[in-house]
Amino acid sequence: MCGISGIYFFSKKSPSVETIKKIIDPISHRGPDGEGTFVEESCGLGHKRLAILDLSDLAAQPMVSFHGRYVIVYNGEIYNYAELREELKSRGYRFKSQSDTEVLLNYYEEFGSEGIKNLNGHFAFAIYDKKERTLTLVRDRFGVKPIYYYRDEEMFVFSSEIKGILPIVKAEINKSVIPEYFSFQNFFSTETPFKGIEIVSPGEYIQVHSEGVSKYRYHNLHFNGENSDIHIEDIDAALDKAVKRQINADVDVNIYLSGGIDSGLIGLYASKHRILNSFTIGFDLSQASGIELGFDERANAEKVSSLINSEQYEMVLKSGDMERCLDHLIYHIEEPRIGQCYPNYYAAKLASKFGKVVLSGVGGDELFAGYPWRYYHADRELTASEYKKSYFSYWQRLLNDEELKGCFPEPEMQSYRMRAKTVFSDLIDSCIHTPYDPSNNVNYSLEFETKTFLHGLLCVEDKISMAFGLETRAPFLDNEILSLAENMHISLKLHQDTGTEFKINENVPGLKKSLFYQQTKNGKIVLRHLMAKKLPPNFQIPAKQGFSAPDASWFKGKSIELIRSDLLTPNAKIWDYLDYRYTKSLIEEHFAEKRNRRLLLWSLLYFNRFLEIFKL
């Protein structure tokens, strides 16, 4: 993985090498192993290299294609590059390096944008066509690798991270997306909190030319769930191939172990081919209570480690570790996204001490229905409007409609609040590919979550790992596995008894703590059966639970002083945008144990520091 930046002038103006260095240097952490620039006519490209395949200078970027027409800067991995290389050889291409970059570039030269759909990998790349004077930006179908851009009448600027754009584009707040974030703890649109800066959508490519910018979609997710003939053996073979593709590297490859099914399966396949180091984050639970007493998964991870014969490393987080990393974390993640992600920060920091590549089980939940308690909103008896309303209320992770009105009383912000609802509606409509069928509600939900929740996770994971010069690979997001997941009948993923069993929400006022410990074995059915086939008879496969620190307890304990100093003062930067008195009343609900507001507290802390760090 690497860092890429570039600029394209719509006029005949030419960028300087100094300008390219200005927009590539802020993302040097993404590529500590080398750098390069290219400038010709109206286009300039910059690259920071993290060497994974072919560590020699022959694989350096920017790279020029075999016939000299195209120039590429590329961040990612093409896992089927060996097959594509042989296809190109049969067409007369010769190769100087052993890199996937050279294969990708010449494959584009041979097939153009039509060849993008044949790429099996995780990538964001930019290719300049010297002949046509066009710039093409491409992002993989899940959005594992991000790419941001800004355009005005004079220029188009892009980068792997927003901070690569800010040296030549003044940082200004985009107020229109603030209610979107405080609705969903995420961004469902392509806009960011930085005015004028957007993210390329997953499965999309953008062509920039002298007349302007054109967008194209080369892949659409489509969960239809029609195929009942997919079997465990199909998943077994696909996962085996995916892991084998993704452990290919000229550096060490290691693994995150949570103790759950997804990372456990990846570890079982990977250990057949490589000796692994494994990494697990645990939590000091001495101040925890209720649901959070089960948040430390080290014991399960150690059992999996013994099965795959990995060298296991663990780190135990305590109350106070969040404060220590908060500013560095926010600087690197930039735009606020889902969840309390500081445990992932410490996991990446730990893993980076032992190598440049780490495998992750991310994606298994969204593709194979790992969160059954989410799908009771997909009741088969609902009409289309009822389903959308129910699902919208669920994904308002931070504030409901009434609370949004209280937090954003200004007329301008109220209009932006309504915009967030429109963004949601348009996106859920895109997941209903056929006339609405209530029996397909779970598939609609899975597709929506893959486009939104998973995308948010991937944006966070990329920024955190690359902050430490670490590449995270996700075998579940292989093209072949995606195809199986899209077509697999829902009965192979989810037990169909979710009507009442999972109507448990930890944020509902007055719930007894013993009720909202959401553990279940009703999701990822095919993966559970596959895991059972591969494990010793006495090995217990754990129930599903999310990866989280005991923040609900810590926010009422040692971290309370952080909240008071950052938020409980009317002079905090965040109160330029949210109503202080009303929002303060919501914070105090958490302290009084009337409602678990841990997600809101984290988001308020993050957003306040974000405004300060980026001077917005």
Structure description:
Helix 2 packs across helix 3 and helix 6 crosses helix 17. The model is unreliable at 288-294 and 498-518 (pLDDT under 50). The strands form three sheets. Strands 2-3-1-9-8-10 form a six-stranded antiparallel sheet, with helices on one face. By secondary structure, it is α+β, with helices and mostly antiparallel strands. The chain has helices at 17-24, 81-89, 100-111, 178-184, 232-246, 261-270, 298-308, 321-333, 342-351, 364-368, 384-395, 401-407, 411-431, 441-451, 453-466, 479-487, 525-534, 551-554, 560-566, 580-591, 598-613, and strands spanning 2-9, 34-40, 43-49, 63-64, 70-78, 121-129, 134-139, 148-151, 155-159, 197-199, 204-209, 212-217, 253-256, 277-283, 311-317, 357-359, 471-473. The chain folds into four domains: 2-217, 4-Layer Sandwich (Glutamine Phosphoribosylpyrophosphate, subunit 1, domain 1), CATH 3.60.20; 232-368 and 454-490, HUPs (Rossmann fold, 3-Layer(aba) Sandwich); 384-435; 550-616, no CATH class.
